[in-house]
Amino acid sequence: MLSRLLDAPLPRRAGRSLSRPSRPPGALRAGGRLAHAARRITEAHLDARGHEKIAPELRTRRLVYGLSRIFSDLCEVHGIRPRVSGPVPHGPVILVANHVSYIDALVLAGIVPAMPISKVEVGSWPLIGGVARRYGVTFVDRGNAQSGAQALLRARGALDSGLSVLNFPEGTTTRGESVLPFKRGVFGLAQRMEVPIVPVALRLDDPDMSWAGDDPFLPHYMGALRRDHVGVGVRFGCPMTVGRYRSAEDLAEEARAMTEHLLCDA
User: Fold this and answer.
1) What value, to the nearest 5°, has the Cα angle with vertex 200 and ends 242 and 165?
2) Banded pLDDT at 16 (limits 50, 70, 90)
């Protein structure tokens, strides 16, 4: 008798359903992606602890390659689908790309292991900021000359270790319709070290996914989480022989022109 009572279904209240309220597919997708991203980032923080006692030169290499795996995983988690064309470079090189969104570094460093140079604000972003700091992303305050010089010193150290560097020399994001003038910083470094420059063009399938101007980060990010996927074209150019150019300004202008040309095929 008792077992039959325990197994009997619970009575329902008149006019009410015990089923959970339906949620739109986009909200379910966003929640699942956030959970997966948080879990992957927690794993990344734990993995980083194992690198703390390693020799500095080896630690830098492990962090750069570890960051590449993390960024590739985060692209998959967020439904970011890069279409790669052109010759994917092998380091050490300096990758220079147009800048259309916060996903740019995830996409490029996920394809080519490289130390990103990023604006200082990224270090305070939720989820990604802590990983970026722990895995050796170089932060630069765009309006601070000393900060820029320190970033170039760190970039030189990475290149000396046989690693590539990733830079967005426009200095800001755009809607991706054209390429702004490139700042000379990394181009002078490339000439001094005789390291090839590799121009890269990024084009989002949906221009609404670009993140530029005064758009707040979190609302844009939450909107992206709800999408089925985010398509992005990635077009690599051929390595540029830096010794052919008379000055860093000439090299920067030619790299910008090549990036704009690549943008047509991205």
Assistant:
1) 65
2) very low
